[in-house]
What does this fold into?
Amino acid sequence: MFELLGVPPQALFGQLLLGLINGAFYAMLSLGLAVIFGMLNVINFAHGAQYMMGAFTAWMLLNFLGVNYWAALILAPLLVGLFGILLERLFLRHLYHLDHLYGLLLTFGLALIIEGVFRKFYGSSGQPYSIPEELTGGHNLGFMFLPNYRAWVVAFSLVVCLAVWYLIERTKLGSYLRAATENPTLVQAFGINVPRMVMLTYGFGVGLAALAGVMAAPIYQVSPLMGANLIIVVFAVVVIGGMGSILGSIVTGFGLGVVEGFTKVFYPEASNTVIFVIMAIVLVLRPAGLFGRAQ
Amino acid sequence: MDRRLLPAIVLLGVALAAPFIVYPVFLMKVLCFALFACAFNLLIGYVGLVSFGHAAFFGGAAYITAYSVKVWGWPTEAGLLAGIAVAALLGLAFGAIAIRRQGIYFAMITLALSQMVFFFCLQAKFTGGEDGIQSIPRRPLFGVIDLKNELTLYYVVLAIVLSAFWLIYRTVHSPFGQVLKSIRENEPRAVSLGYRAEHYKLLAFVLSAALSGLAGSLKSVVFQLASLTDVQWQMSGEVILMTLVGGLGTIFGPVVGAVVVITMQNYLAPLGEWVLVIQGVIFVVVVLAFRRGIVGEISAWLSRLRA
It folds into this structure.
């Protein structure tokens, strides 16, 4: 059996895969945060709670209505996205003219409410969600065992991220979005309904978080607190990447997931903190973030 | 006599008489959190920096005081000083990194850094992991003042907290405080006038961290416990809630906010998980409807009456 840097290849590639999966979630969540921040100037602290809601919606659809994974993959983001639109209509839109701080505090409060309610009914232990039949099992690649579901998560999230990038950077709708980010008044003067676009953008970002939640459900247990700690790591990812660029968010998300995976192999004690350490280093060397524009 | 001193004198009278009516440990908890909230308010209210990571200073100092008093057998006053010193150093490190970005990024960076401190405390041997550091002895202060008596401890805590309030008051009303306010209002202008905004912000951050550390150290002396709850991000959220409820940028606001939030937690404790939900609802309601907080709304109402 050959070894790489003193570590058996199974462990190395296993952690690499796990890192890629975490990276997929970092990328999808930071993408949603960046899209929302671009349009609303709000840092959505409830993003982790909405990711958790996505996972729970999938779990509820399966257990109460018998709706399978594939349908949940579409339904759960739609439902949670609609819930996001409701939040935007009821609360967030009253804060756009204020300091960004208030949007952060409001969504922090919303996150406490959502997580508190789920904890009330489901405790802090996790609910299992089984892998869909079509994706059980795996392939032996010789150097490692690749479970099908994990391969699917990495591939599908990459497709989703690139689709979002295409939507925003290459389509007419995306150009409206980018224009409205730069100068909403002018875009409105051209007859485009900017408030509605803002509302839909928030719904879209929230839906993206929910989609990540559905994909995470079979890998991690579905628990009320699954998003609470994740969102802090995602904040660090956003600071490292800078919110200026869509592709930047994707690359940073996957990259940091892989770095975290490798840390688990070589220095497990630091695996929880490595992303925060990288954040500190990046801030010292390049305060605007790797892909950010200087203010 | 200056009329502005009146509320301060009334409050002092209430604070001196309070332990004969209310359970002293509860009062000391309120005092510790009032100090924590005032230290936090120094940043958000007077410099305009939103830190989401103040739990790191509060909890970090609590651990240091707990460990030095319990394991090394240091006297209480040395333990408190060690807690403050470590919180100030942490503040220097956090501040140096975080003031490179502003506004919303500043909040995210401080949150991430404090999460790093949380994981450190979770994994480090000396913090006792999930158990925390328990039954910390209350050694006599300066070798004479017996802290085992709860009434004595209350007056000691009161004296320390009041001195800290005085320090905050003096800071805010000093030339240094005026420069901080000018940076909050218009940073480029302050810079163009020759003030090194970064240095001012960093100093304010360190001061806020040190005072938060004092609050955490006192808390560990009062409860004889330092645990992971003190360093968790929920703690940072709580201090924000207190400041927000009382009124951002007001002198007495954070104190009022601490009283309200701690009292609420005390009475709602049997409701378990609903406490978090209620706190969330308060966040939403205050942000949407009462952004000036209790003290801010009252003083706005008073000035309307006079007009």
